Amino acid sequence: MTQSFEEKAKELLSLANICVNGSQPRDIQVHNTDLYARVLSKGSIGLGESYMDGWWDCKNLDQFFYKLISSKLDEKVTASSLVFHILKSKVSNQQKKSKAFHIGEKHYDLGNDLYQFMLDKRMAYTCGYWKDASTLDQAQEAKLDLVCKKLNLKKGDKILDIGCGWGSFMKYASEKYKVSCVGITVSKEQIELGKKLCKGLPIEFKLIDYRDLMASKYKDKFDHVVSLGMFEHVGYKNYEKYMKIVHHVMKDDGLFLLHTIGGNISRVTSDQWISKYIFPNSMLPSITQIASSIEKIFIIEDLHNFGADYDKTLMAWYHNFDKNWKELERTGLYDERFKRMWKYYLLSCAGLFRVRKTQLWQIVLSKNGVKDGYISVR
């Protein structure tokens, strides 16, 4: 006898100890039974869109995804649309220069109000460092200081920040270490607010793609280069070119600190739902892909993985978002569907990092090797 979609879905969920209409916080409450067919036929994008549509709920989405992914149920449901998604990434360059500003318009230009209510006081939209921290503000400041120390910043240094956001790193480094900075981003909203936040400091914002650096006015090379949470938008077809550009704009004795989310397995695209609704044309690099891109270009001086800290960071962002939702709603920019989408994004990612299938790496690179060796900082 052929199983119905509902029976098949419930059987799969039971493998993760998740019940339909159960009493545990990780259990799902189904409001539309068409959910089963939609998810089994469309995979992750069907699951995410049906949540946005209000077809199901879960008290603790992060725990739901932790159980789901740790039981490898995400590997048991493969939608036919995923094949096209992967093929498209192999045939064409989804992160080519003509698409560079799409991510800025789609994600980072959603409105500064959203990020001011969600992030820490410095507006760092990357993983915090929770080693000795108990609050989001502390974790983000610890991360920024960690980066400065890993680069061994000195007064008067000139730093390039690729994907500078609202300038959180540049402002911290300029105030605490007396350096000057140039930051590039593809987000108009980030530049508008960033300039206000960094007013009076030796900081310059530029609305350009990283590929424009080769033709930029900066003839003097930078002492060091940093990139926090931007490499996820570069794409595997562009990794080597990206590394060559950084190599070109940095002094021979400089250091490049790459802070990026990474995957345990080499892939050529991202999750379909994330790609459609949150980070278009994004993908997570693997260590193999990064290592291949730096051959004959850079030497790895240090590799630091604190991916477990992203779970804590995402949960802190979600609590801020949820706490301030009424204020965001009053702006008229965000509706209930957006709230469900954003909640799904933050909590599904928290569950993913909790399982440790996704990592956060800080990699320190040099051109010719640090004389007498690099001293790691933790």
As a percent range, the share of strand residues is 15-25%
Form type: globular
Strand order of the largest sheet: 5-4-3-6-7-9-8
Q: Percent of residues in helical segments?
A: 40-55%
Overall mean pLDDT stands at 91
What is the number of beta strands?
9
Q: pLDDT below 50 for ≥5 consecutive residues: which ranges?
A: 80-91
Gross CATH architecture of the largest domain: 3-Layer(aba) Sandwich
Amino- and carboxy-terminal Cα gap: 59 Å
Strand count, sense and closure of the main sheet?
A: 7 strands, mixed
Q: Count up the helices.
A: 16
CATH fold-level name of the largest domain:
Rossmann fold
Which radius of gyration do the C-alpha atoms yield? 21 Å
Q: CATH-wise, what's the superfamily of the largest domain?
A: Vaccinia Virus protein VP39
Judged by helices, strands and strand pairing, the structural class is: alpha/beta
So what's the CATH class of the largest domain?
Alpha Beta
